[in-house]
Amino acid sequence: MFKVLKTSKKNKARIGKLKTEHGFIETPVFMPPATKGYLKSLDVKDVDNAKTQMLLVNTYHLYLKPGDSYIKKFGGIHKFMGWNKPILSDSGGFQVWSLNKRDQKLVKVNDQGVEFTSILDGSKHIFTPEKAVKIQHNLGVDILMAFDQCASDELSLKESENVLDKTNRWLMRNISEHKKLNKRNGSNKLLFGIAQGGKYISLRKKAIDFMKDLEIDGLALGGETIGYNMKETKKLLDNIYDIFPKEKPIYTMGLGSKPQDMIDAIIRGVDMMDCVNPARLARHGSLFVGNLDFKTFKIKSSEKDNILRIGQSKYKNDKKPIDKNCDCFTCQNYSRAYLRYLYLVNEPLYLRLATIHNLHFTNMLINTLKDFIKNE
Questions:
Q1: Domains in the chain, ordered, with CATH?
Q2: Considering 148, 217, 261, 274, which one is annotated as catalytic?
Q3: Which of 90, 148, 217, 261 is catalytic?
Q4: Is 261 a known active-site residue?
Q5: In angstroms, rounded to a whole number, what is the distance separating the alpha carbons of residues 33 and 355?
Q6: Is 274 a catalytic residue?
């Protein structure tokens, strides 16, 4: 299902090819989250034009509304939302953890699974590894994520080990149910396991060692540390790279808040990533700019953190595009001054144009890095 085509001579970045039921993906790849089956302010043509290869949806949210059985009646999530390229689904483990962090009364975790209360209507629900896998098969996604228990950075070594052990036990149940449903449905969907362990390198190594010979198609790094704390994330990746199963894609979940974060992960051997922030930042006036320096693999621009804050008064009369090197629809047609005007008057058009830019810029940056590796 996955083949490494070339590895960089300068770092651990690599180009790969991943086969799914809805076509091939060239890695490294960024997956914009269409959490509830849509990206705010964009249609699928906008997303496709931004050079997006693959989307991410969320099991927890789609299960609650409109329902996985409902989506199955429409022929699956691809037909329901009009997207004919690959889709990966998060299993809902992180969302249940977030719900627990919000109010511990809403979640009860045991060896069988998780009981939680919906914040939509107060109804009670149970997620087990088997149920999470079944929901994802009902959705019809190309890549399923194993249902896991997310680890907080605040946990002690012992607490993190308990979370890891439970996640590993659940993984075996995920695999069993997934194989059964693939066989029953005559499908060839992929399943990724999730390595927990929090901020503890020894536990992450233990998780990877546990999974390396299992019947999974990819390996993901989950938990609060990944992406949220880039200093610890980079340290973690540097220390566990040597034990990555090189024949499988590596996915850092929730990583990609800023373009530099993605580059930092890719040059450490990561193949796949997702994050809500590129779209969210765009909606709140923060637009990506900059060029990648191939000597340092750092993005350089005159803006702090390579983010242009469009609401600032200095852009009032600025006729330039957001980024002169970006060929997205927004940069080809609109000035900073016009975008600032739309932003300040809360015009919905701004949301679309800004999101198009940040998604396109992210994909363009990764493609630029891939072209560099191909031509080394």
A1: 2-275 (3.20.20.105), 286-359 (no CATH)
A2: 274
A3: 90
A4: no
A5: 12
A6: yes
